[in-house]
Amino acid sequence: MQPVNLSNITIDKIELPSFRKNGLEAEVLRLDKIHPQISGNKWFKLRYYLDEAKQLNKKSIVTFGGAWSNHIIATAAACKLHGFISIGIIRGEEPAELSPTLQEAKAMGMQFIFVSRENYRQKRMPVQIDPDGYIINEGGYGIKGAEGAAGILDHCQKENYTHICCAAGTGTMAAGLAIAAGKETRIVAVSVMKSNPEIGRNIELFSKKNTFELQHDYHFGGYAKHTPGLIHFMNDFYQSTSIPSDFVYTGKLFYAINDLATKKYFPAGSRLLLIHSGGLQGNASLSKGTLIF
Ligand SMILES: *Cc1c(COP(=O)(O)O)cnc(C)c1O
């Protein structure tokens, strides 16, 4: 396994007409560069769960996700690195051929238990789960995940920014950013799901702060859904910035921030930090040629 390397993280200044016209400065924190497959934010979120599993002398870690899950692959890698047995409870019947995500996780030693979508949704789990395993929620959701994500801002000068913007699934990462950011900095969380009021509740619960703003209108049909407009934007964005994005999270984030800038959501003089949380491996689920990168 290629090692995860946090020193590969860079901060890239980006220039878009919407920013220039409205007097905004924007930089991207490139957590996607830590590893080709292992997603930036998922790696950060795992840290304190693994610490606790070690303290409790657990031998194995059990977690949950779908066939393209950034969390599954990050957990498999972290368990390999820290010497845990890893068990992935995977949503859906076992396929004839594993997705590249699951192939990669398997190569890092993860064992799978496939659960029908219905049972997965009802949280009816197979009996074989190791009762002594340490359980990590799907996506690293939880307070420890937020505390781990707070470490993301150790990789930039966080005082430099008026707004820190990120994609939000559960809101765990956004909560971590709120924990770490000063009280003058606004966290702008772009929901990648259709109507998910839990994001706001989670951010507040985990961060005990209200320095965040939610954007609910950039889900493009719902979780992991996409439109030609989104794909077109991602290709354009790559052409003008050389930054690749993924269609589940960061593509929607960059689209949203560009659109909000055009609509003068950010006051002139704002300095934005956009979190590139990774997730590029999931683009392999798109048909070839959809993206130019
Ligand atoms: C999981 C994930 C997110 C969302 O994280 P939450 O903490 O669930 O809000 C954002 N970006 C990427 C690339 C992810 O894999």
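^ pyridoxal-5'-phosphate complex. The longest strand covers residues 85-91. The first helix runs from residue 17 to 21.
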